Structures are given as C-alpha cells and as structure tokens.
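User: I'm putting together a teaching handout on how multi-component assemblies are represented. Below are the sequence lines for each component of a complex, exactly as they appear in our records. Could you produce the 3D structure of the whole assembly as structure tokens, so the students can see both representations side by side? Please keep the chain order the same as the input.
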Amino acid sequence: MQASGNTPKPVLPTNASQVVALDSAARVNTLSAWKRARMSIIKGRWPLVALIILVAMFFLAVFGPSIAPKDPNRNSLIERLQPPFQVNERTGGVDFPLGTDGLGRDVYSRMIYGARVSIFVGIAAVLIGGIIGTVAGLAAGYFGGAVDDIIMRLADIQLAFPFILLTIMVLVVLGAGVGNLIIVLAIGQWVTYARIVRGSTVSQREKEYVEAARCLGASSLRIIALQIFPNVIAPLTVIASFNVASVILTEASLSFLGLGVPPTVPTWGGILAESRDQLLGGSWWLAVFPGVAIMLTVLSLNIMGDWLRDFLDPRLRDR
Amino acid sequence: MWAYIGRRLAQSVLVILGVTLLAFITLHLAGDPTYLYVSERASEQEIIDARQRLGFDRPLPEQYLNYIGGLLQGDFGDSLRAREPTIELVLDRLPATLELTFFAMILSLTLAIPIGIISAMRRGTAVDGGVMLLAMLGQSIPGFWLGLMLVLFVGLQLRLLPISGHVPFLEPLLQGDVSTAFGNLPSAIRHLILPGITVGVFSLSRNARLVRSSMLEVLSLDYIQTARSKGLRERTIVLRHALRNALIPIVTLIGLEFGFLLSGVVVAETVFSWPGVGRLVFNAINQRDIPLVQTAVVLFSFLFVALNLIVDLIYVQIDPRIRLK
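Assistant: Of course. Below is the structure of the complete assembly, with chains in the same order as your input.
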C-alpha cells in the first residue's frame, strides 16, 4: 500500500502482455485508489485541514501524558480560577496557558488528558458497535428466514424509541465508568451497521462469485468472511466516521450530566459541567476551550465523512 | 389501508412491550433493587420485609407482569426521594418540556425549509457554500455547549434575553385559562428563545442540508424539465412543483425528530434551569432515584411511539405510495 514517490507510476495497460498480467493490474488499481484519495484530499482543502486536526488530536490522545505540562489532577487553591494567557512576571513564562479551574487545576493539561477519553470512547464504541452490527447484518442477510426476522425486529424496536434515554438509565444503574460507557454507546450503534450490511449482503449473496465459491465447497462461514464481507465494508467506513463524531458528542453530553466517567478522570464534557458553576463569576475560559476542542474534533470527523462518501460514490457529490 | 394500520398498531405495541422490558431489566441489572429502597443501616429483617412488601421476592416474569399491570392502571411506582407516585412528578413537569420541544421543532422546520431551498437554488455560489458550512458547524457543536455560550454572550454580556426561568403557556392553556395563556405568550417566547436554539440547532442544520439535497434531487427529475419547457416561472416551479416532493423525506422525519429533540432537552434544561422533565431526570440521576428515571424513560418512549404512529397514519393520507410498501 505504499503510494510514495519511489513506486513505479501506474501505467494503463496498452498492449497484450500488460493486459495478461492480471496481478500487476490489480496492483495498479490499488495504487491509483490511494493516489486518487491523496490527491482528492489535498485538492478539497477542507478535508486536508480536517485530517490534520484529527491526526493532531489522535497524537494528543496517545502521547498526552508526555505532552501535558502538569498533572491534570494537581490542585492548588491559591491558583484557582486563573485566567488564560497570563504571563508570570517573575519567570516570564506562561504558567497556565488556558487558565485554571475552580480547584486550581491546569485546564490545558486537563484538556490534553480529556482528548484521550473522548477519542478512545468514540473509537472503541464505534468499533464494538460496528463489529456487532456487521456480524448481525451478515448473518441476517446471508441466512435470511428466522435469523433475519429476529435480528431485524430487534433493530426495529431499538430504532422506535429514543435510545439515549435508556442509555441514561443504564448508566444510572450501573454507575459511571469508561467500560460501561463504551458498552452502552456501542449497543446504541449496532443497528445502523446491521441494516446497511444486511442490505448489501442480500444483493451480494446472489452474485456469481458467491455461487462459484459455494460450488467449490466453501463453508458458509468462509463465504461470509472471505467473499461477502470484503464487498460490503466500503460504505461502513463512511458511517463509522459520522458515528465516531456523534458518539463523541453523546459522550460529552453524558459527562456533562455527570454520567460519563468518574469525576477524577478529566474529560471535555466534564470540564464543561464544572464550568457551569463558574460561569456567573465570569470564568469564561472553562466553558470556551473544551467546547472548541469538541467542536473541532467533531467537525473534522464530519468533513472527513462527507469527503469519504463523495470519494467512494462520486454521484453524491454536491448533494 | 386497514391492514397497514393494523400492522403499524401491532408494531407499536411490540415496541412498547420491548421498551418496558428493557426498562424493567435495567432496574434489575445492578442486583437486588430492594437495596435502593432501604436505608444503608437497615437490619437483615427490615431488608427481607421490604423485599416482600415491594414484591422483589417474586420470580422475575411475575414481577414484570405486575409492572405491566401497574402501568396499565397508571401506576408507575413511587419515587425513592419524594415518596410520591413518579408519574405525577413527571406529568407535572411535562408541559414545560413539551413547550421547549415543540418550540425547537417549529424553529428548526420554519428556518430549515427556506434555508435549504435558497441554498439549493444558489447551488455552488458563495451563499450556498457559507450556509452549508454553517450547517456543518451546527451539526458539530454540542448543543449544551452552544447553550453555555449563549448564556455567556447573549445573556450575561449583552443582556438581550433571559438565561433562566420559564413562563408557562401550555399549562394554563390545558387548564382552559386561554386569556392567561396568551397573555403569557410574549414573555414565554422570550424565555424560550435561547433554550430553543440550544435544543434545535442540530436538527435545524441537519434539516437544512436534507432539504437542500432533496430539492436538488427533485429539480433534476423529468417533470421539472417539463414544467420548465412549459415556460413556467422558476418561482412556481420550485415552490409549487418541486417543494411538495422535496419535503417528503422531511415529513417522514418529523416523528423521529421528536425523539432526537427530547434527548437534547435533558441537557438543555440543565443549562437553562428549565423546570421540565429533563431537569427532573437530572436531579433524579444525582440522587440515584432510579424509579423516577425509569418512569421518565418509559413515558417519553410512549409519547415518541404514539407521535410516530400518528405521523405515519397522517402520512399515508398524504402519500398513498407508502401503503403499498
């Protein structure tokens, strides 16, 4: 999958010997797909900006502890509610780039740690929900009959009421925690994947290559995993990027309600919840910065999702 | 037609059974719910008595049937803190929540449709680009954060609009006091604007994008070509010919929209100290008053299912094609 400069330029097959080389033709195809993607991202400008933001956020999430200047939970009541961008006159440096909260904790460091939770929860919930949904969708689409009926009726029930409310209730009963949060958010996700995968599976099932595999004696499991699955996965990447965005938003709301993770773990939504009490006192920075971080991340994911959708299906462009 | 209605009704009943079952299971998820009802220092005997009194010693299927039986008679259980029927607490707060939800819905629809149309008409121009970027932004902002920003800048800095408090409109109206209701209306709306924007901005943005794309799709159809070649004015083509078909996906979403908005309401009410069900649920969360949360969840789901059923039934009248699916 290297699309870097030292790989040979893809050449369209012009004579018989090149056409015969099926294997290299396939390689030409993958190369050009990556190359097309790269060019399309750069040409679109916004997707490029979004990608850079996402990479930066991911970097912060992974290397947070070594980047954050202070312990996110170190409090110091003398330094409480320091405004941002204040230059320390004694040392000439900036002690708290984004100010401190009501307990004197460094907002900048807390936000870097907060990126971890938001991004980890977002990716984990979508991965788990995506896997459950894809397996359910493949099974429903491939086997049909009773399996299909049961899975799709379950999906209908879940779609027929505001699931977020049940999420709230489950978290109240089980208590806040990253694990519980991920599981509940993942369960909220699976239906979308199941429906889309089921739809594509039903149409792929009748294709000749599946019949060929069956004639060769391949088991159902093998056909589903090796023949059908690779052909239904593309649209899922689009849904997944939108869903990571919406999970991050939901996680922020739940943390804001005090249902996300325990208060000792810094999260963007959690800092916003604490900012509510300081708002009337004029400590605007507590409310502004974490919100901007959430917005930038979610916006970037949405822009990437849009780009990916257009890229995979150019007919949808400008719609 | 009747077959369709029958099928939809059966489906709704199934969903409601599913929701109540899920809510019931959730209550038992953390173990024996008796411990929620007794004090931490309760003796062994007191716990056993309470378990018997509350019926938690019965087999689970029997408990579920009792729960359903209670629901059918309007008995949703008692609140742990207030020691009152939860349903009364929730119903007391419901009008304020419905006001906010419907206000947000009206705001979202009345703005989204013209914005979407204008954007589609000016496709590819700076206006279109700007509007779509704003819409993208609106879908990426956490609603409650927008609420906090509105409190901070519109409420506290500019002092343009109230940032908390609620003037009842629906409640006097429901009690038949029409003159009070409409006397309250101007003030009620002033108090609704900021929370309404907070709740509605996401669906406003999504609907504007949806109207735009659906408009573009319809405008490329043959019958629009025909209308154009007849020499009709563009205005007539868009508003009379295209709009009707372009709005179909929006109408389908109105019922679902309600559920979306409701979930935003819980957080928005917390930001603006709105005396609705959301704030009640928020307080119940903090006090771990699970029966109260459970009642709110079940009641909201009922409302949601009922509203969707009504929308679907009206919808069949508007678009006969649905019946055949």
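A couple of points students might notice: Residues 1-28 of chain A have pLDDT under 50 and may be disordered. Residues 109-317 of chain A form a domain with the MetI-like fold fold (CATH 1.10.3720.10).
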